[in-house]
Amino acid sequence: xxxxxxxxxxxxxxxxxxxxxxxxxxxxxxxxxxxxxxxxxxxxxxxxxxxxxxxxxxxxxxxxxxxxxxxxxxxxxxxxxxxxxxxxxxxxxxxxxxxxxxxxxxxxxxxxxxxxxxxxxxxxxxxxxxxxxxxxxxxxxxxxxxxxxxxxxxxxxxxxxxxxxxxxxxxxxxxxxxxxxxxxxxxxxxxxxxxxxxxxxxxxxxxxxxxxxxxxxxxxxxxxxxxxxxxxxxxxxxxxxxxxxxxxxxxxxxxxxxxxxxxxxxxxxxxxxxxxxxxxxxxxxxxxxxxxxxxxxxxxxxxxxxxxxxxxxxxxxxxxxxxxxxxxxxxxxxxxxxxxxxxxxxxxxxxxxxxxxxxxxxxxxxxx
Length: 368
Ligand code: SAM
Ligand code: SF4
What we know:
This protein has helices at 4-8, 15-22, 27-44, 84-96, 112-126, 144-153, 167-173, 182-195, 212-224, 253-270, 280-285, 289-295, 308-311, 329-338, 352-358; strands at residues 48-51, 53-58, 101-106, 134-138, 157-159, 198-201, 204-205, 229-231, 233-234, 275-277, 300-301, 342-343. By secondary structure, the chain is of the alpha/beta class. Helix 2 (15-22) crosses helix 9. The mean pLDDT is 95. (3R)-3-methyl-D-ornithine binds at residue 138.
């Protein structure tokens, strides 16, 4: 049997290699995988970190994903939508903090009023800074026309996690009805790419019923679908969701954390030029989780800029950090310097993969 170092020395990793690497339980092997991923990261995207300010602007959601704390049927939370002025004030703060981009995230809403209001917000925010901020949206499944309208208004990036690339697992983690359709989620990702968004997706790691083979297939899905950005992190329990009943059957949280780092590391190795987010979910399990994510190959952080008073109503899972304190760039600067990483201000940090994909000069795209 090949050693982990021998597997990692191969020019290409097979699905079987990925399954073997995701199954690592030995500490030395885990370190070898992470070392390799960090050396790939250093050579491709560099020891640089891009900050995007996250604004969770509404927790209204029409869906009922079994794992999510802001699902429609959770009546224990207060529903809110930030006013335009509140969003502009937070955006001004992001500009003052020298962020070059923001992420507008919410539950899934699809009324014509929502579409129109978001388009006008995007257009206004584009005029607030010079050079303009890059705007990422993360507001779920929408029609082609809606995506196009927001793109035309000035949004450049979109995050829509597939959650799992295994269709039958997808159906186990969502209600069985038309608003929770795997095929529609796939179609949305295709539409976003067609329109010209830098397109991001991702999965949760350690879900009930999920296997290591599923996770290997998720990585292959990202590669085959030519994704530009990935955000993935451990699945975490929210006690007021239907999936809370599976808490006892999950991998222990420490193992879910290490598995998440192996997923990030492998992804960096197979897709060297994409952007990878070190997620807040990592930090929930370990206070230095996001730093560990960066050392495993991630290169993007999304500090939460949602006003503190709203954060308790945007708890996707229990113990989500940051409901008490603000996150400031200066603090990030010193934390990251300690691990040899540097925040890139004055740089949009667009996905290199996206840029190459569009200039038809992509080293890891199969379908150019
Ligand atoms: N509503 C939009 C959507 O679903 O695409 C965007 C907001 S949604 C809250 C953003 C992401 O949160 C989801 O894609 C999901 O992966 C993640 N999430 C929700 N519940 C979670 C949980 N219990 N543990 C970890 N991540 C979770
Ligand atoms: Fe709504 Fe997104 Fe949560 Fe699903 S994951 S319930 S769509 S906010």
